[in-house]
Amino acid sequence: MDLSYGSHPTNESFTPRKFESHPPERWNSVGHDNWSGSDRRQRPSSLLQDLINNPQFSESRQPLTVKGLDTNVEDFFVNLDRLSPNHINQYHGYWGQIANAAIGSTDEIWLNSAGQGYPSVCIPRHLVNELYSRHQINRGDYSMFAGAYMLVVGFLETSWAGKLYIEVKDLVNVAVCFPAKH
């Protein structure tokens, strides 16, 4: 997965993985109906679509390289509904539905996945305008994120109060997919 594929240029390198010609579990990637056996890059937004629309994809043992980490789809992507204490301080692609959004005390946006015990995603103040711009949302209309799905690549952390959260360092680590009405 190339986190910066299709976004602004970065200095980070990407080494594509060779896909197996006959994977143990088949999955259809958005825009791809078969396995070519060739290297390919995918945008995080395309992978999020695969996670949402194809339950078998999240269980795939398909090899995946993210920022030099060799892993597989099943081990890397974690649905927010299936978190465990083992995920704390671990680097993964966390994904799920946004229940609501809120503005924090320092003008950061919090994308909340559900109630107590579920993680929130913090978009720091210096990234907020870019987030609104990317998704063509009027500044301050953070309620538009409710009901959307998100994929955030990063570390799951615990606050001093025990709240699970993922702080976004760069928006290339975030994909948001809105319902059709957006």
Description:
- With 182 residues, the chain is of the alpha+beta class.
- It is built from three helices and eleven strands, in the order αββαβββββαββββ.
Oligomeric category: single chain
Structural class: alpha+beta
Regions with little confidence, pLDDT below 50 for 5+ residues: 1-38
Kindly state the number of beta strands. Answer: 11
Question: Which key phrases capture this entry?
Answer:
single chain, 182 residues, alpha+beta, five-stranded mixed beta sheet, 11 strands, globular
Task: Break the fold down into its secondary structure elements and pairings.
Layout: H1 44-53, E1 63-66, E2 69-72, H2 73-76, E3 77-79, E4 91-97, E5 100-103, E6 109-112, E7 120-123, H3 125-134, E8 149-155, E9 157-158, E10 164-167, E11 174-177
Parallel strand pairs: 3-4, 7-10
Antiparallel strand pairs: 1-2, 4-8, 5-6, 6-7, 8-11, 9-10
